[in-house]
């Protein structure tokens, strides 16, 4: 098994093209499957980055149920917006450590991180009946599907 690319290979000329195609397909699949693929954990990324929390989307006959992992976040720090088929979740997790006078922080990984995630559902949801609940670091959204008008059948006389 080779862990290092050989640049003296006869195919090394095609590497940049191969890398470009690989990135293109990766982006295409990420966009297409984004409602169902966790992009990164909330704890990931460097300080100040906007991260995407992991989520699950479940469909029932009448609702969509979305579970979003946002450990350590208070409900006051989360915003959820429902706009037809698009569900947007954003906020920040505050993990500040209080530095006392006379202390020198040698190493710190706790910080304030912003998170954002948007999901496009296959059908519109009834925003009036939408519910959100935050429990044990998991945001649970229950989104009723919008009732569509059924076609009227006419009796031929």
Helical content class: 10-25%
Gross morphology: flat
The CATH architecture category of the largest domain equals Sandwich
Low-confidence stretches: 1-6, 36-47
Q: Give the N-to-C terminal Cα separation.
A: 77 Å
The first-level CATH class of the largest domain is given as Mainly Beta
Mean pLDDT: 76
Main sheet makeup:
4 strands, mixed
Our count of helices gives: 1
Class by alpha and beta content: mainly beta
Topology pattern, helix = H, strand = E: HEEEEEEEE
- Total domains: 2
Output the radius of gyration.
Answer: 23 Å
Domain SHSP: 46-157
Keywords: Stress response
InterPro entries: A-crystallin/Hsp20_dom, HSP20-like_chaperone, Small_HSP
Family: Belongs to the small heat shock protein (HSP20) family.
Structural description of this entry:
With 157 residues, this protein is mainly beta. The protein folds into two domains: 10-39; 40-144, Immunoglobulin-like, CATH 2.60.40. Helix content is 12%, strand content 32%. It has one helix at residues 15-33; strands at residues 50-51, 55-59, 63-69, 78-83, 86-94, 112-120, 131-135, 138-144. The strands form two sheets. It has a four-stranded mixed β-sheet, with no helix packed on it. A four-stranded antiparallel β-sheet has the order 2-3-8-7, with no helix packed on it. A hairpin with a 2-residue loop joins strand 7 and strand 8 (138-144). The longest helix is centred in the N-terminal third of the chain and has 19 residues, at 15-33. It is flat and about 90 Å long. The chain starts with 14 loop residues before the first helix and ends in a 13-residue tail after the last strand. 13% of the residues are buried. Mean pLDDT is 76; it is low at 1-6 and 36-47.
């Amino acid at each position: 098994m080779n862990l290092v690319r050989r640049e003296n290979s006869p195919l090394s000329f095609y590497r940049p093209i191969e890398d470009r195609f690989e990135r293109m397909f990766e982006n295409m699949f990420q966009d297409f499957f984004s409602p169902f693929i966790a992009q990164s954990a909330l704890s990931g990324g460097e300080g100040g980055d906007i991260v995407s929390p992991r989520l699950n989307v479940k469909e029932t006959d009448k609702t969509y149920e979305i579970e979003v992992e946002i450990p350590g976040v208070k409900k006051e720090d989360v915003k959820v917006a429902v706009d037809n088929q698009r569900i947007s979740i954003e906020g920040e997790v505050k993990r500040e450590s209080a530095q006392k006078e006379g202390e020198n922080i040698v190493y710190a990984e706790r910080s304030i991180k912003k998170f954002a995630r948007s999901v496009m559902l296959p059908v519109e949801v009834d925003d009036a009946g939408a519910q959100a609940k935050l429990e044990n670091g998991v945001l649970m959204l229950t989104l009723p599907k919008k009732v569509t008008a059924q076609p009227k059948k006419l009796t031929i006389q």
